[in-house]
Amino acid sequence: MPMIYAFLKYLFRISLRVFFRNMQVKGVEHIPANGPLLFVSNHPNTILDPLTIACSIDRRVFFLAKAELFKSPFAKWLLPKFNMIPVYRAQDNPALMKNNDQTFTRCFDHLKHNNSILIFPEGISLTDRKLKKIKTGAARIALGAEALNDFKTGINIVCIGLNYSDHHSFQSDLFINIDEPILVKDYEKDYKQDAFEAVNILTDEIRHRLEKQIIAIEDAEIDRFVKNIEIIYKSQLLKDLGYSPKVKEQDFLVTKAINEQVQYFFNNQPDRVVRIKNNIDDYFKNLDRMELSDRVLKKFPGKGSLTADTLLGLFYMVIGFPVFVFGFANNFIPYKLPGTIARKIVPREFLGSVSMLLGTLTFLLFYGFQLWLVQHYFHNVLLTLCYLIALPLSGYFAFFYWKRFTNIRGRWIIFSLFYRKTALITSIINMRQNIIDELEKGRKEFAEMNAV
Description:
The chain has helices spanning 2-19, 48-56, 73-78, 100-112, 137-147, 188-193, 195-213, 220-240, 248-268, 270-289, 294-298, 303-345, 351-378, 381-420, 422-451; strands at 20-26, 37-41, 61-66, 84-87, 116-119, 156-164, 172-178, 182-183. By secondary structure, it is of the alpha/beta class. Strands 1, 2, 3, 4, 5, 6, 7 and 8 form an 8-stranded mixed beta sheet that branches. Helix 1 (2-19) crosses helix 13 and helix 12 packs across helix 13 (351-378).
């Protein structure tokens, strides 16, 4: 079965690179090349989470998965062949929790043989930007496995933070943040004094490490406020700090800083936060009324700039149109079908994961069928190979061609609105600038307070 695992890992690496616009990993060097290893991670995006982790590291991984997935005889036979181990959760069936003794025994055996195991200690997957309550299973497995060998096994725990820019959208971003390992042997003294307390101490450390690797915002209203600030202000803040939006670690650090400052002012100057929040809400309501987006508004150019950009854009549209038609015709159905099916069969929190998995299948089927047709009718291997190369390249081109078209269209809409409703558009632009000025003022005050 290692061959099947290696093949699927290769296949999904390709799928993930296509699905995400920008997928970056920081801290791979923290993962020990050998020895028993327990990976723990936050769990914001269901099936995508184990896939992204397994495809981002070199170690072969065994996965703890909820026992509900193993209900059918076929699943019981198949899933273990993909390194999946059932874990029984109280929220599913409390009566089956006793079966976790077998699960722990299997984990102990894997760790004894220097394997690596991935566990999501929150025990549930939700798309909120926060860390749910960390369960003690990871600490119990690590300490239990070490105790069986008098703490000579050498188990490390590596905490991984998954940070999605959008949990469900094609061509969104993912930043995988890997922490330095926790050596379980360091908890030997605590375990021998009080095993129960040692589990709690290690669980607290795991939570602390995970919180450092992700954007953790406990309050949903504050999270929405932070997201709105990111939309309006983050690009300018990245530029002011000399950061690049393409470097996801820098993007992550800026979001962390925004959240930290929002939390500070929320606790110390709540009236000020409410005022800014109301101004931002009014700004977005005005954009909605005008059917505009902040992305289009902040790039609103002068007339000369718009004319030059539009002429270049139209030239690109004309020259690229035949390639767009080819890419659209050959890729639209396998691109659109997975999301349509996923929205009908799964809850929203599974949308991104299921769409990506279905997309992998539909593109393989559609591409395979098209290549068979080309070879069947033309009997030319070189032509078939060229067609194979053209399919994904033209699909990418069609996707970005359409984005370019919508950008040009959006800029012309706002330009025409500016001439028909100059006062209204000007007031919205001024509203946006006033919000940025207020946010910039708060950032400088926060920096001065922390410099003291």
